[in-house]
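Encode chain A's predicted structure.
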Amino acid sequence: MSHLPVFPRRFLASSFAGWAVLAVLLVIPGGARAVVLRNDVSRTKYQALCAQKQFAPVGEIEVNFGFGYQQFASAVLVSNTMIISAGHVFDRDAELGAIAYRFVISGQVIPIKFKSSGVVTIAPGYNPVTLINDVSAAFLSKAVKGVTPATLYAGRTENGFIGTMVGFGDSGTGLTGDEFNDSKLAGQNSIDLVNQYDLVVDFDSPTNPALSSLGSPYPLPLEAVIGPGDSGGGLFFDTNGHWVVAGVNSYGYQALGSNVSDTYGWQSGFTRVSSYVSFITTLAKKHKTSVKTYTPPKKNAAVIELLPMDAETMDTESLTIPWYQQEGLIVKRLRPTPTDFVPTSPSP
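Encoded structure for chain A:
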């Protein structure tokens, strides 16, 4: 099944005989920033979440097609000279006509010599249609200063976690979809589906539970999905007190609801970092740099039952850093679905 890259290409999804058919509409030039948010929650709350220091490793990728640099996509700093991003940010379609790329983070602007052999590598088996293996690594021409690189998550128990997505993509709300530019933003969602390649979430509506296609129909206080431009940014977890990057922002998919992208009912997919730790660390070693990984300790699984709560009764403090977000916990929802608890696959 095809998915929609959230950048650099914008797609329209329609269905035929139950299968999604995706048509490329246009390449979007110009600046594009920030995740798509709930319509009933103040944007300032999402901005406050984004300002937390653990999300500082997310920067933006700018591209020059011959008429100046434009904001293009996102990336995550994993060593002082290495970033990871989505594969489709650097594939042949994205590079068509590009003469230069650069990485911008914490006021620093660093060129990426993407046409130099070995500087940018896309994961083997990458498919630009299905977005399988949609991850890339790039090496910077000089070291980033003053930013602590993100730690890679090497565990295999992502299902049920609450992740914080961070990026520079088109913003808007669940009613409007992605419609305008904004500053760097972060939002949250619970991981409802896990397979070898992806972590998947859906955009739950605060007023219409029928628009939920995965897991619980109740949105988090800072519920969000990724929009065009967020590709390559990070999905972060707080696990056992360790902040880690567990996903790379990858695609959007029309599951339920409007044909307008990123409205309630849409799904967002994140490339599963734990499946690509070897790919990333091997490249880092070749370039004489190193990345940090975190593998949680194994322990007996406990079962925790979560009761549904509406926005008025939710404990927003605990959901920002959820108390049950511990490795090995099995989360049972009041309204499980067949896709709610997908067994994780072994590392490829």
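The longest helix spans residues 277-286.
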